[in-house]
């Protein structure tokens, strides 16, 4: 294995799958939590297909002769909104049990990846009870959570949130995640591949953090963006080689 390889980090930015209120606008009148719609049946299929794609990519990268320890280890972080948790669950289902890849620990519930608390989307502060309800639902439905994970944000972002505040939230999360992985990963071991399941505005903010300029791309359901960082050459910044692609959903 090349000496420089373990110091390279790969991060996937994933938007959640199709949401129920997108296809049924009246759904919001049938619930006490209209700000937290679940996935549609199609959205669940999109999430699983995303997992299949990541599984197959890991298989393509596996080389038992040249790199006997080349199994891809995924760290999966998700916004606590139901549509993101269900998407993360679908990704886990798609990756499945494989000799080529694995999810390490379970879903890392991270409020820093939450939806943009914009006045265009919401009329008031979303209660932090959404986070505890999310945890309880995961435990009841046996959705794997990494319970030992300590999130960077212990509450939902404050409403209202400006675009600059949103960008700073995601930039800070990405920087702190890189720092933590540097501390946790021994020099002679490759970094796990990181998957961040978030919202459309979140994906744009993560791309903006990589490009270091205002970014606005069309981010469709379960689209995939991928960024790489050579930690031995941080001054070169992030290399984005996939940007909001949905080719894996065809």
TrEMBL record:
- The organism's superkingdom is given as Eukaryota
Task: Please give the CDD domains that the UniProt record associates with this protein.
Answer: HP
Q: What is this protein called?
A: Phosphoglycerate mutase-like protein
């Amino acid at each position: 294995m090349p000496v420089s390889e373990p110091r390279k980090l790969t991060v996937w930015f994933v938007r959640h799958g199709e949401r129920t209120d997108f296809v049924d606008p009246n759904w919001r009148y049938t619930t006490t939590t209209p700000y937290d719609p679940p996935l549609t049946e199609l959205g669940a299929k999109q999430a699983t297909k995303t997992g299949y794609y990541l599984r197959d990519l890991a298989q393509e990268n596996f080389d038992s002769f040249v790199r006997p320890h080349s199994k891809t280890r995924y760290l999966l972080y998700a916004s606590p909104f139901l549509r993101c948790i269900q998407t993360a669950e679908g990704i886990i289902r798609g990756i499945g049990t494989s000799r080529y890849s694995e999810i390490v620990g379970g879903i890392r519930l991270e409020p820093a990846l939450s939806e943009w608390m914009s006045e265009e989307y919401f009329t008031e502060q979303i209660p932090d009870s959404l986070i505890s309800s999310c945890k309880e639902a995961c435990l009841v439905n046996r959705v794997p959570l990494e319970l030992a994970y300590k999130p960077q944000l212990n509450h939902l972002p404050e409403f209202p949130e400006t675009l600059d505040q949103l960008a700073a939230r995601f930039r800070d999360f990405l920087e702190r995640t890189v720092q933590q992985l540097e501390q946790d990963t021994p020099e002679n071991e490759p970094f796990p591949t990181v998957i961040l399941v978030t919202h459309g505005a979140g994906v744009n903010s993560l791309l903006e953090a990589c490009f270091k300029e205002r970014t606005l791309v069309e981010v469709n359901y379960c689209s995939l963006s991928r960024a790489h960082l050579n930690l031995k050459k941080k001054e070169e910044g992030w290399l984005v080689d996939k940007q909001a692609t949905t080719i894996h959903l065809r």
